Amino acid sequence: MRATGLGKQVNTGNIHLTILRDVSFDVEPGEAVAILGASGSGKSTLLGLLAGLDQPTSGSVSIAGTDLFALDENGRAKLRAERVGFVFQSFQLLPAFTALENVMLPLELAGISAARAKAGAMLTHVGLAQRLAHYPKQLSGGEQQRVAIARAFVNEPELLFADEPTGNLDAATGAQIIDLMFDLNHERGTTLVLVTHDQAISQRCGRQLRLVAGCLQDTG
Length: 220
Fold this sequence. Notes:
The chain is an alpha/beta fold. The protein has helices at about 45-50, 75-85, 100-110, 115-125, 140-155, 170-190, 200; strands at about 1-10, 15-25, 30-35, 60-65, 65, 85-90, 160-165, 190-195, 205-210, 215-220. A six-stranded mixed beta sheet has the order 6-7-8-3-9-10. Strands 2-1-4-5 form a four-stranded antiparallel beta sheet, covered by helices on one side. Strand 7, helix 6 and strand 8 (about 190-195) form a beta-alpha-beta unit. Helix 3 crosses helix 4 (about 115-125), helix 4 packs across helix 5 (about 140-155) and helix 5 (about 140-155) packs parallel to helix 6. The longest helix has 18 residues, at about 170-190. It is globular, with a radius of gyration of 17 Å. The two termini are about 15 Å apart.
């Protein structure tokens, strides 16, 4: 993945706000990169741009050699379905779907066969074999995040974006979730881009990028 000259500006009335300014970096296949920064530094905005969920004011993002913003919204959605997984702080599970159905969804959208069997195997892999028929409201926060991680990894994405994945969890549960995510990352060779404010989590990545007032510092 490559970000080149990314900028994001927002105009509200007479207020002109620069959220990101000329952000450029590469992420190599299989690499784990942490994006750090204070609240309001632009971390989540940057992740949204890298995934093509938001449009930059300037600059470009390429995934597997494809320029995201040369595609229309349907094209970007197709690329995400085929190559990208997501883990969010707020889990983003569909409340009317069971754990199994939530994990089946990306497989079905991508037209992958045997979605039920693959989703069940992935949930078993993350320790939820006894929770397949449970709805999100019947699961603890840690269990919901395990479902979200299973959903993110089930279609074997080349690239995983994680936005504060332990932000809504207690310390012990958060540590288990991070262990699980990195275990799957190493096991499957997935490229990981992780937004976090937690220095200990960031140190588990091979490289740390720090956002300060919308500008990027590569801290090695």
